[in-house]
């Protein structure tokens, strides 16, 4: 059961080139994660410790998980992912046990990148949410902090986490020696959207009449994940119409469908 809570990949199939619109964030992650893994002697020579933990924060579907996978892949490190929600357990001591297992596993598989997604599930402010009042969740968080405190920054394990709810986080996890490198991963601007569209249509048979920069201009406020599903959906419209080439109209239909789906989702939330 324990192993099931974690996702382990020797070499995740994501590269930096697959990630569009967040070049600056890629650069920062490389500096904080890849450089210490690949050239620890530089940090020794200069006499500084690399950042302990890297926290990626921003809206859903902007590429945070991709970024963590890509840096593990490109540093030839094992990628070990744990969802924060998996650490929230019913039985006493079970969450902290999982945290210990996570760090033990990383030590066995080093070089390794630990990635804790939805870290807010175990690290919400004490005052603020119902779950954080839960003593068991508190204990799990304390275990995580103690693993990080007892950690050799110049070793072969790097720790990353992600959240969509940065404002909810307990400041204790942001202290020096813990998640002390914050990287915001925002929704893409128009140029980023075009780049992401290029990436997701690279293997698609797209008609010459399609101007991706015009499509990108219509995708205000959309995330990378939205753009990935838009491209797939546009392809589906072509297939339904018995065509092998994807046309401009297919992207327009796909966008309409995406916006209808968003509306339904919004209605269900409110
Ligand atoms: P969440 O906060 O919901 O976990 P996330 O930020 O971790 O989201 P990812 O899981 O990295 O998002 O992205 C989901 C999918 O969306 C990716 O598999 C990819 O297809 C697409 N995607 C997201 N962002 C980008 C991007 N910047 N460039 C290319 N594709 C992207």
What would you say this structure looks like, in words?
The protein is of the alpha/beta class and 270 residues long. 47% of the residues lie in helices and 12% in strands. It is built from 10 helices and 6 strands. Strand 3 (78-83), helix 4 (94-109) and strand 4 (112-117) form a beta-alpha-beta unit. The chain is globular. The two termini are 36 Å apart. The structure holds adenosine-5'-triphosphate (ATP). The site of adenosine-5'-triphosphate has 19 residues, from helix 3, helix 7 and helix 9.
- What share of residues is helical? 40-55%
Return residue spans where pLDDT drops below 50 for at least 5 consecutive residues: none
Task: Indicate the mean pLDDT.
Answer: 91
Q: Could you give a short account of the major beta sheet?
A: 6 strands, mixed
Rg for CA atoms? 21 Å
Q: Strands across the major sheet, in which order? A: 1-3-4-5-2-6
Q: Which geometry do the CA atoms define? A: globular
Beta content comes to 5-15%
Number of helices: 10
Would you tell me the structural class of the helices and strands? alpha/beta
Give the total of beta strands. 6
Unique ligands: adenosine-5'-triphosphate
SSE pattern: EHHEHEHEHHEEHHHH
Report, as a whole number of angstroms, the end-to-end distance: 36 Å
Subcellular location: Cytoplasm
Main location: cytoplasm
Family: Belongs to the AAA ATPase family.
GO biological process, one term: proteasomal protein catabolic process
Question: In short, what is this structure?
Answer:
With 270 residues, the protein is of the alpha/beta class.
Main attributes?
about 270 residues, alpha/beta, 6-stranded mixed sheet, 10 helices, 6 strands, about 45% helix, binds adenosine-5'-triphosphate, ATP hydrolysis activity, coiled coil
């Amino acid at each position: 059961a324990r192993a099931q809570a974690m996702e382990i990949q020797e070499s995740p199939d994501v590269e930096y080139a697959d990630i569009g619109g967040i070049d600056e964030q890629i650069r920062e992650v490389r500096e904080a994660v890849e450089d210490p893994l690949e050239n620890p002697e530089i940090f020794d020579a200069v006499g500084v410790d690399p950042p302990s933990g890297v926290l990626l924060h921003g809206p859903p579907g902007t590429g945070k998980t991709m970024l963590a996978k890509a840096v593990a892949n490109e540093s030839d490190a094992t990628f070990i992912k744990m969802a924060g929600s998996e650490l929230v357990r019913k039985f006493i001591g079970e969450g902290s046990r999982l945290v210990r297992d996570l760090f033990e596993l990383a030590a066995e598989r080093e070089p390794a990148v630990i990635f804790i997604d939805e870290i807010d599930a175990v690290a919400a402010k004490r005052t603020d949410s119902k779950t954080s009042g839960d003593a068991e969740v508190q204990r799990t968080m304390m275990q995580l902090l103690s693993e990080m405190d007892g950690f050799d920054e110049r070793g072969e394990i790097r720790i990353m986490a992600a959240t969509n709810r940065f404002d909810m986080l307990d400041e204790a996890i942001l202290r020096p020696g813990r998640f002390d490198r914050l990287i915001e991963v925002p929704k893409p601007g128009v140029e980023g959207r075009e780049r992401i569209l290029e990436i997701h249509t690279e293997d698609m048979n797209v008609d010459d009449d399609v101007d991706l920069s015009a499509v990108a201009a219509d995708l205000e406020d959309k995330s990378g994940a939205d753009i990935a599903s838009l491209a797939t959906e546009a392809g589906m419209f072509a297939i339904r119409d018995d065509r092998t080439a994807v046309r401009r109209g297919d992207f327009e239909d796909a966008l309409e469908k995406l916006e209808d789906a968003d509306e339904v989702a919004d209605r269900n939330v409110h």
